[in-house]
Write a structure and sequence with these properties.
Blueprint: H1 3-12, E1 17-18, H2 21-26, E2 40-42, H3 47-60, E3 63-67, E4 83-87, E5 94-98, E6 103-106, H4 112-120, E7 124-125, H5 138-144, H6 151-154, E8 161-167, E9 175-179, H7 191-195, E10 204-211, E11 213-214, E12 218-226, H8 229-241, E13 246-252, H9 254-264, E14 273-281, H10 286-299, E15 303-308, H11 311-317, H12 321-324, H13 326-336, E16 345-349, H14 359-373, E17 377-382, E18 387-395, H15 399-418, H16 434-443, H17 448-460
Parallel strand pairs: 2-4, 3-4
Antiparallel strand pairs: 1-2, 5-6, 6-10, 7-11, 8-9, 8-10, 12-14, 12-15, 13-14, 13-17, 16-18, 17-18
Helix pairs in contact: 8-10, 9-13, 14-15, 15-16
The structure holds flavin-adenine dinucleotide (FAD).
Flavin-adenine dinucleotide binds next to strand 3, helix 5 and strand 10.
């Protein structure tokens, strides 16, 4: 064992340090494609464990790669051989729940689903619901700035983090308590929001104070298929005008809906573009709201309309099946394109947003880009907030296509910027979208913002030991 590893065992004890190659391999992968390497994996159980490792890392120029459940899909956790993975899964206490003051205090390894299981017993919820909610941790969601299906109503993590305890990667491994337990807080620069979405590059989150809210008494859900995208968007506009309290508005394009239907044979099928709308209401109004939504769908030309007066009924009817299985269906499509068992597909989930009123144009232009490069693509997204997730796949053995991939993604990001949107909405920048950041700030004549970000990184992390080479482009 090298001196570094012996020192780590001395600092944390044998139980909290893994050095065998297979464990390291397991913790060096993310959810999709990226795989790195590391000297060891450490599993801190307290803030003090984190501090002691950070102090040692600072003195010895050892890099630290923070990790929750590594479900990110942009390479923001991928470690290198020059450092250690710091996995937070053992820091998973829910320390305080206050329904009166609407907050929880949690450790970073708590999974979002665990938090919601506790809150739902009292009719409350934490509304950030990434599709990966069963594995995503608080620390990972804070640092990714995650969002989810209810983004149009509840926004993303930046809207729900009230306070953070963090360990800085400096000589003293300084512990800072930022923000607090109140929704109103004006104490200088907002360092909490700076750390939210920083992809583990600024500080190690060891505790979070999160805002919570009442869960809707009743959720009414309607789905249907539209031959023309214009009809679907007309329905979206009518629903918005109708002043219904929309929670979820999900879309799957016609080609993708067909692929998914053919692949998983869901309970609900149809032809055309799929729209799913969930509305928050109260028990007494459920039936009336359902009828109103169904009328709006029918009035916009929807076919195969199915409605449910509760989430339980929606699940039983299979209303979310096509949307939820979009990614697994894409993986199946990708695996069918492989030539042999040895080959791996490279699967990429895009994450642009455009103002919802520009969605039709965005979808058309995405299809043109996919045809230009001859890349297969599935497409779904959150219509309510304009966040689109085109998914493409390439055979790793197809060198030509792998070479074109970067230009393909740049074209998509350029299109989002031209339509007034952003290059990343909830997944982050990681390793894959650094060029997009340059594009985006250049387009706004604001390239200096990137040099300000680099200076901020140096202030927090003077020796560049925390998740180096992530998020910030070097030029
Ligand atoms: C099938 C699937 C569906 C998904 N759906 C969505 C979706 O709908 N919406 C969405 O936003 N995302 C989605 N994601 C992406 C991802 O799951 C989320 O970003 C999730 O919140 C990440 O949580 P995690 O615990 O896995 O974090 P990780 O992947 O482990 O880490 C994410 C980032 O946070 C950093 N980090 C982790 N913990 C800490 C800590 N304690 N201190 C400092 N830095 C830390 C890491 O270094 C990394 O930069 C999806 C992923 C998959 C695989």
């Amino acid at each position: 064992m090298s001196d570094i590893l012996k020192d780590l065992v001395k600092i944390l004890g044998n139980d909290k340090v893994a050095v065998d190659p297979l464990t390291i391999k397991l913790y060096s992968k993310n959810a999709v494609y990226y795989e790195g390497n590391a000297l060891a994996v450490v599993f801190p159980e307290t803030t003090d464990d984190v501090r002691r490792v950070v102090k040692y890392a600072y003195q010895n120029n050892l890099k630290i790669y923070p990790q929750g459940s590594a479900s990110e899909i942009v390479g923001s956790t991928t470690p290198r051989k020059d450092g250690i993975v710091m996995n937070f899964m053992r820091m998973r206490k829910v320390k305080e729940v206050s329904y009166v003051d609407s907050y929880v205090v949690v450790e970073p390894g708590v999974r979002l689903i665990e938090l919601n299981n506790i809150l739902s017993r009292n009719g409350y919820m934490f509304p950030i619901d990434p599709a990966s909610v069963k594995s995503a941790t608080v620390g990972g969601a804070v640092n990714s700035g995650s969002g989810g299906m209810m983004g149009a109503k509840y926004g993303t993590m930046k809207d729900w983090v009230l306070g953070l305890e963090v360990v800085l990667p400096d000589e003293e491994a300084t512990v800072l308590k930022l923000g607090g337990k109140t929704t109103k807080n004006r104490e200088g620069y907002d360092l909490v929001r700076l750390i939210v979405g920083s992809e583990g590059t600024l500080a190690l989150v060891t505790e979070a104070i999160l805002r919570i809210t009442l869960a809707p008494e009743r959720v009414v859900t309607v789905t249907g298929f539209f031959r023309e995208l214009e009809d679907l968007m007309r329905c979206v506009v009518e629903i918005k005008k109708s002043k219904l309290d929309v929670l979820i508005m999900e879309f799957v394009d016609d080609v993708t809906a067909k692929i998914t239907i053919d692949t998983i044979k869901p309970k609900i099928a149809g032809e055309g573009h799929l729209l799913i709308t969930s509305v928050s209401t109260v028990d007494e109004a459920a039936s009336r709201v359902k009828d109103k939504l169904v009328d709006l769908y029918a009035g916009s030309g929807a076919t195969n309309v199915v409605a449910a007066e509760s989430m339980g009924e929606a699940e039983a009817l299979g209303i979310f099946e096509i949307r939820r299985n979009l990614y697994p269906a894409t993986i199946k499509m990708a695996s069918l394109s492989l030539r042999d068992d040895e080959e791996k597909p490279y699967i990429f989930v895009e994450d642009i947003s455009v103002p919802p009123s520009r969605l039709i144009e965005a979808v058309k232009r995405l299809r043109e880009i996919s045809e230009k490069y001859d890349f297969p693509m599935t497409l779904g997204g959150h219509v309510g907030d304009g966040n689109l997730h085109p998914v493409v796949w390439i055979r790793e053995g197809d060198k030509d296509k792998m070479e074109q991939f970067n230009n393909f993604v740049l074209d998509i990001m350029r299109m989002a910027i031209e339509l007034g949107g952003v290059i990343s909405s909830e997944h982050g920048v990681g390793k894959v979208k650094k060029d997009g950041l340059v594009l985006s700030f250049k387009a706004r004549n604001s390239i200096k913002a990137l040099s300000i970000m680099r200076q901020i990184k140096r202030i927090f992390d003077p020796k560049n030991i925390l998740n180096p080479d992530k998020m910030l482009p070097s030029v």
